[in-house]
Amino acid sequence: MRTSVLLFLACLFLLPSSVLASDNTCSRQKYDQYVQSSLQWYQTLIDLAVKEDKALEEVGRWFLQARQHHLILNQQALSWYFQHQPQRIPLTLPVESWIALTQTEIKTLSQQSNALTPYAQRVFANRQAKPHPQNYQLRTMFALLLTQPQLMKNPLMTYNEKIKNINKINCS
């Protein structure tokens, strides 16, 4: 009888970790989809800006690279937190809220020596660097584009639909 109880308790302790591992894979894939959708959205926004003003092509590449660095850091952080601090990931919130690293956290990560360090160093360097000379023009163009419903309706609806569908994925 005692052996049965111990075996039962052992199974109870093993079950949550195996379920958690399953959830991690699904959640990571869900976050990967969010990252891809976000990068596609930024690329679309840049394409529209460049279509309006060809002179924004270089700053558009610069902007997209910074967004890639940011999203890849978050993607790597998600994996790291699943392994080391899973309680830090608020899986009950929408996927875009799962990772919110502060500037202080990014700086700290950039000065450490772990798997996140190279990603944090890139993001921290991006944030500390002098802005691209045309950064203001690009952001102004984004603001202008976002005030044009006829131009932005389809890309924005596409992005919002993707995010809505990603958030519908149930990983439990």
How would you describe this protein?
This protein has 172 residues and is an all-alpha fold. The protein is built from 6 helices and no strands. It has helices at residues 2-52, 57-84, 103-111, 117-128, 135-146, 149-168. The radius of gyration is 21 Å and the shape is flat.
Short recap of the structure:
With 172 residues, the chain is an all-alpha fold. Helices cover 77% and strands 0% of the residues. Helix 1 runs antiparallel to helix 6 and helix 2 packs antiparallel against helix 4.
The first-to-last residue Cα distance is 33 Å
Total DSSP helices? 6
In total, the number of strands is 0
Question: Biggest sheet: strands, sense, closure?
Answer: none
Please estimate the helix content.
over 70%
Structural class by secondary-structure content: mainly alpha
- Give the percentage of residues in beta strands: under 5%
Mean pLDDT: 88
**What does the overall shape look like?**
flat
- Outline the low-pLDDT stretches: 1-22
Radius of gyration: 21 Å
**What is the H-and-E element order?**
HHHHHH
Defining traits:
172 residues, mainly alpha, 6 helices, disordered N terminus
